[in-house]
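For the sake of transparency, this paper describes our internal protein records without simplification. The record that follows is passed on verbatim for readers who wish to inspect the format:
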Amino acid sequence: MIGASAAAAVMVGSLTACVEVNREPVGKPLLSGLQSGGGFTSLRQLDENGQPASPAGLGTGADKRTVAEDGTVILRSPTISDLMRHILETVVNDEEEPFTEHLLSSVTKREFIERGYDPAEAFRELKRREDDVRALFRAIPIGEFTPGVMLRNVGPNMFRLGIKGDPDLRWSFIDVVLEKGHYKLRWLGRD
């Protein structure tokens, strides 16, 4: 009786060892019918002349912040995440002039002047609200590359990068303007 059970087990084991499973896809892959690009739009980087920039023209991280021989700080922000990093660095390092000169959009500067304020007041306000800036930037740590954030067009060359669902954030989005191939701060806000 034990011998018959052992023989049956060996026979079943040898039959299953000979089975080969081939899986073939049924139908088309999920997104195979989409045309190139899939209906998504991309943001184009522009050079100083307003022409599309080549990837080589975007530069490396090392040339996004340069210091001239006279000590002048020059900031370049080809991505929103670069802009965010520069904003935080200038606030922490108390660099009002580079912030106002290189990071604040011309639209925002013009609005400050029209209302009778010095555009440098924008820097002072961010300095005063540094904790709010940090909280927003922690929620979107790699800017437009952060999974789950929303980037939408809110005007000509103007974009809003934001996050929803955190009631503790005093600011839930950053508005930016693309000027001559570099992102500049429009302002921060809450939806």
